[in-house]
UniProtKB/TrEMBL annotation:
It holds the Pfam family T6SS_Tle1-like_cat. PANTHER family: PTHR33840, TLE1 PHOSPHOLIPASE DOMAIN-CONTAINING PROTEIN. InterPro entries: AB_hydrolase_fold, Tle1-like_cat. This is T6SS Phospholipase effector Tle1-like catalytic domain-containing protein. It comes from the Bacteria. Residues 3-258 form the T6SS Phospholipase effector Tle1-like catalytic domain.
Length: 350
């Protein structure tokens, strides 16, 4: 059996810091050494793509990255490039991401599905493949599939699959403004064997709508589970001070257990330290308020809905997230005292 390759992509403006996200926690607790290698990539908006910029220009690029998703191609390219450098036949890929970092790893998985794994030295080809993927997402022209098949047959050097994809609260907006960017195979991808997705029940901000995964008939054996947890966006993916991260540690513990069951090697001592840093996972932990007055104006900005905005524009108006019928609800939701979320008529407790 080959090695495990673990790629951790953080959310917008998230990076190595004292207030850890669950992506950073994941990187810290996974075993690193013989048989497993891990790579951590900070989120969009923490560093600007390379180029000769002034200090003012760099700050403008960071703002554009967070507001409009500028730099997403660069983030995809970094993660994909790391895989192409490390991958050998027989290796297993584990991809983890939070927020737009979750969308990044889903995009990387889509890139692998459509265009295969390209040689590490062929960086120009990486850029072409990413651009083709984005173009295919903006067009319904079936010619894109023929081009992808020919490109993969000509240049791909490995038949690569994603063994496990772990996402914390993927959002539908790659940037805060503009139409949502929808890439093919980010919602349904037959080249992923196992998918785990933690979702926030209480997030309501217009620019943080959910972006769920769906089963595909092309991969009937795919193991997909999406679970809803109490809390807002960063109560699920982390980023608040450790003393206020009781809720985030619940979804982190769940994700690590799911990944370990699928073969990920985890340092038990490091995991225990991460879970108990300034307090353990706690259903009674602080549930933060993300929809602060600073976000209220965005609730009255028309936001495109659906792939490429095909469902038109709609105001969010403080709308709650809709939990679908048959959803999986984590047991910690019902352990929280005085908490009564709006749940579907039918659901399963996990």
């Amino acid at each position: 059996m080959g090695k495990a390759i673990v790629i951790c992509c953080d959310g917008t403006a998230n990076q190595f810091a004292r207030d850890k996200t669950n992506v950073l926690r994941t990187f810290e607790v996974v075993h690193k050494g013989q048989g497993q290698v891990a790579v951590y990539l900070p989120g969009i908006g923490t560093m600007e793509p390379p180029g000769p910029l002034t200090d003012i220009g760099r700050r403008a690029v960071r703002i554009a990255a967070m507001a409009f998703g500028y730099g997403l191609e660069h983030e995809i390219r970094k993660a994909y490039g790391a895989i192409s450098r490390l991958y050998e036949p027989g290796d297993r890929l584990y991809l983890f991401g939070f927020s737009r970092g979750a969308y990044t790893v889903r995009a990387v998985a889509a890139l692998i599905h459509m265009y295969g794994l390209l040689p590490a030295a062929a960086e120009d080809l990486h850029a072409y493949a990413i651009r083709y993927l984005i173009d295919a997402g903006r067009s319904r022209d079936p010619a894109h599939f023929g081009r992808a098949k020919a490109f993969k047959k000509t240049f791909s050097v490995a038949d690569c699959r994603v063994h496990f994809l772990g996402a914390w609260d993927t959002v539908s907006s790659v940037g805060w403004f503009g139409n949502p960017l929808t890439l093919r195979y980010t919602a349904r991808n037959p080249s992923i064997d196992n998918i785990r997705h933690a979702l926030a029940i209480d997030e309501r901000r217009a620019f943080f709508r959910t972006n769920q995964c769906y089963p595909t008939d092309e991969a009937p054996a795919q193991d997909l589970r999406q679970v809803w947890f109490a809390g807002v966006h960063s109560d699920i993916g982390g980023g608040y001070p450790a003393a206020e991260a009781g809720l985030a540690k619940i979804s982190f513990r769940w994700m690590m257990a799911e990944a370990e069951a699928k073969g990920l090697a985890i340092d038990a001592q490091a995991l225990d330290l991460a879970l108990n840093d300034q307090g353990p996972p706690d259903p009674q932990g602080k549930l933060h308020r993300s929809l602060t007055p600073a976000w209220w104006p965005a609730e009255f900005v028309p936001k495109a809905r659906g792939a490429g905005g095909r469902d038109g524009l709609r105001l969010n108006l403080f709308r709650r997230r809709t939990i679908p019928e048959g959803a999986h609800i984590h047991g910690s939701v019902f352990a929280r005292q005085g908490y009564a979320p709006i749940l579907p008529a039918q659901y399963e407790t996990v």
